[in-house]
Design a protein that fits this description.
Strand order of the largest sheet: 2-3-1-4-5
Radius of gyration: 20 Å
Largest sheet: 5 strands, parallel
Strand content: 5-15%
Helix content: 40-55%
Order of helices and strands: EHEHHHEHEHHHHEHH
Structural class: alpha/beta
Length: 249
C-alpha cells in the first residue's frame, strides 16, 4: 500500500463513487471504494474483523488496501490518518455535500437507513438478516462506531452533527497544503489543479444518486436472500437424502 497517492477522507454519500471514477480516469487507478469490498476483493473481507479487534492493526490495513493508488468512501475514509503515516507524500481530498443536513438526508435514505427505524424488534431483525447475509458489513459498522464515537444506524444519532464533527477533525489533522475540500459539483478543475494533472475533455462522472443506490442495493439484497434460501434448501435435501439412505422413511 506504499503506492497510495490520493486519500479520500470524505464520508460515504459525498459523491465518493463519482470520485472513484474520476480519479481512475485521471490515472489514479485502481481506486478503493466500498464497491471493491462488495464485489472485487471479497477474499480480503476476513481482515475487517482483525482490524477492528486488534490495536496493532497497521499490517492488516496495508493488506486490505494493498495494490490501490487511491482510496475513497467507507471503509477507507476511516483510516485516512493511518494512510498519511504510511504515505506521507499523498494528498488528501475531503469530499463534502452542500450542507450537513443534505448529507444526513442522503445517508438516512441509503447507507444508514436503519437510522430511521424506531421499532426495536424490527431493527434487531434487520440487523440479524444483514449480518447473516453479509458478515463483513457487521465489522465495518463496528469500526464506524469506534471511529465516530456514535452508532450511525441508531435513531438517536444526530447524523448532521456526526458529519460536521468528522469534517472538522479532518481539517484539523491534515496540513492545509495537502488538503482539498471538494464538492463533486465543482467538476474537474479544482481537483485536477490540486493533483497536478490535466483536465479531461469528458464530463465529470455523476453516479450513484439516492434512487440509483436504492435500486442497486434492492437487487443485491434479493440476490443474497435467494442465494441464502437456495443453500438452506440444498442442505435440507442433502439431509433428507442421507436420512432416507440410512434410516428409510
Amino acid at each position: 500500500m506504499a503506492g497510495l497517492q490520493v486519500i479520500g477522507a470524505g464520508l460515504g454519500r459525498t459523491g465518493t463513487l463519482s470520485m472513484k471514477l474520476a480519479l481512475e480516469e485521471l490515472g489514479f487507478n485502481p481506486c478503493h471504494h466500498m464497491a471493491e469490498v462488495m464485489l472485487v476483493h471479497t477474499d480480503r473481507n476476513h481482515l475487517f474483523k482483525k482490524i477492528y479487534q486488534e490495536e496493532d492493526n497497521i499490517d492488516a490495513i496495508k493488506e486490505l488496501f494493498g495494490g490501490y493508488v487511491a482510496a475513497v468512501d467507507y471503509p477507507g475514509c476511516m483510516f485516512y490518518e493511518e494512510f498519511m503515516k504510511i504515505n506521507p507524500d499523498a494528498k488528501v481530498v475531503l469530499t463534502v455535500r452542500d450542507s450537513p443536513e443534505a448529507w444526513a438526508k442522503s445517508a438516512r435514505e441509503t447507507i444508514f437507513m436503519l437510522n430511521t427505524v424506531q421499532s426495536w424488534l424490527k431493527r434487531k431483525v434487520m440487523i440479524f438478516v444483514q449480518v447473516a447475509l453479509n458478515p463483513r458489513v457487521y465489522w465495518i459498522q463496528q469500526m464506524m462506531v469506534k471511529v465516530h464515537g456514535v452508532a450511525p444506524s441508531e435513531p438517536k444519532t444526530d447524523l448532521a452533527q456526526m458529519y460536521t464533527d468528522w469534517n472538522k477533525r479532518v481539517i484539523e489533522t491534515v496540513a492545509a497544503e495537502k488538503l482539498l475540500i471538494f464538492n463533486v459539483k465543482e467538476g474537474w478543475k479544482p481537483l485536477c489543479d490540486f493533483l497536478g494533472v490535466p483536465v479531461p475533455d469528458t464530463p465529470f462522472p455523476r453516479v450513484n444518486s439516492t434512487e440509483q443506490w436504492q435500486n442497486k442495493v434492492s437487487g443485491l439484497m434479493k440476490g443474497n436472500i435467494l442465494n441464502a434460501l437456495t443453500r438452506v434448501v440444498v442442505a435440507g435435501l442433502i439431509f433428507a437424502c442421507g436420512y432416507y439412505l440410512l434410516v428409510g422413511f
